[in-house]
């Protein structure tokens, strides 16, 4: 057993007071030494956190103790160290940016559990559609899957015409952890696709529960691991080094902060280029220090965890004052 864990999850459920919940949530993470990225939005909760097994267990219990999230599904992986260097708990409009105008709580594609997915992926009437960004599926994807040249889910409407001719097929969408597919599959149904499914829990859960068979390459993840192995049955490498074109499944972010492109780069080229993707980026004045990983900590949103504590104390003080000034019944 490795000394740390990484937890990936999402859950669609209405959150009315996102600011208050953000404060409470952030404080819990600080008190339990958890690092990671968590998004809180009116439509739900989405996060990846990392810490010791004990702290991660406490966190999962904390989330599930809220009746809104009692059925949340966690994907839990072991790791040699904490997979983040900071804690970010942010309030946003959506837990996954899409602008698709759909509500997964109203309508979404049918969930396929990993074992069910494994049984049907070789069916000639099944079409696998990758709903991730281009740099993600270039590193790894399911055999035979359709991919789109898009950088984020907001661009999906621009690519629907590429699969219009497949409306009579069984469409199965997939992504890293399942969250994008809740909206992507809903959008396909809005566009007239009739038989739409999604891999419940995404690539990560399929790898954990079914061994990842027929997933070629590695899976891009949004923490300092950058890429993880999924396929323990018939693995292969499909990506090539961006610089020397040799087979390579090691992903980096370009050291030039203005570029920050996500590309496969082998160890040798990574050292020679100091983590940059081109000579121009190597010479750029904003080039970050390359430590051999190609992972760089994102900028802080300047929210301090103690803000939550101050907000809670302020609210308690207001409540007590209101109670003292209430007229006698």
From TrEMBL:
One of its GO terms (molecular function) is oxidoreductase activity, acting on paired donors, with incorporation or reduction of molecular oxygen. Pfam families: Rhodanese, Rhodanese_C, UPF0176_N. It catalyses: uridine(34) in tRNA + AH2 + O2 = 5-hydroxyuridine(34) in tRNA + A + H2O. Gene3D superfamilies: 3.30.70.100, Rhodanese-like domain (3.40.250.10). Keywords: Oxidoreductase, tRNA processing. Residues 122-215 form the Rhodanese domain. Catalyzes oxygen-dependent 5-hydroxyuridine (ho5U) modification at position 34 in tRNAs. This is tRNA uridine(34) hydroxylase. The gene is trhO.
């Amino acid at each position: 057993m490795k000394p740390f864990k990484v937890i990936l999850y999402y859950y669609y459920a209405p959150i009315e007071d996102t600011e208050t919940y953000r404060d409470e949530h952030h404080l819990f993470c600080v008190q339990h030494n958890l690092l990671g990225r968590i998004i809180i939005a009116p439509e739900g909760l989405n996060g990846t956190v990392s810490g010791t097994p004990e702290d991660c267990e406490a966190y999962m219990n904390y989330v599930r103790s809220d009746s809104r999230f009692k059925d949340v599904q966690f994907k839990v992986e072991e790791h040699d160290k904490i997979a983040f260097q900071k804690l970010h708990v942010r309030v946003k409009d959506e837990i996954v940016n899409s602008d698709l105008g759909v509500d997964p709580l109203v309508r979404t594609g049918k969930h396929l559990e990993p074992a069910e997915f494994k049984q049907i992926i070789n069916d000639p009437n099944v079409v696998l559609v990758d709903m991730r960004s281009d740099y993600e599926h270039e590193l790894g994807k399911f055999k035979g899957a359709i991919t789109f040249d898009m950088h984020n889910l907001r661009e999906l409407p621009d690519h629907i015409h590429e699969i219009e001719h497949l409306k009579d097929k069984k469409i199965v969408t997939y992504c890293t952890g399942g969250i994008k597919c809740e909206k992507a599959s809903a959008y396909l149904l809005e566009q007239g696709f009739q038989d739409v499914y999604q891999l419940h829990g995404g690539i990560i859960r399929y790898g954990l529960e079914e061994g990842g068979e027929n997933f070629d390459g590695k899976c891009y993840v949004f923490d300092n691991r950058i890429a993880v192995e999924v396929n323990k049955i018939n693995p292969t490498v499909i990506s090539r080094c961006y610089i020397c074109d040799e087979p390579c499944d090691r992903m980096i972010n370009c050291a030039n902060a203005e570029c920050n492109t996500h590309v496969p780069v082998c160890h040798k080229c990574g050292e020679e280029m100091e983590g940059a993707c081109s000579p121009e980026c190597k010479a750029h004045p904003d080039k970050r220090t390359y430590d051999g990983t190609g992972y760089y900590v994102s900028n802080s949103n300047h929210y301090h965890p103690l803000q939550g504590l101050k907000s809670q104390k302020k609210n308690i003080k207001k409540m007590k004052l209101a109670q003292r000034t209430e007229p006698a019944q």
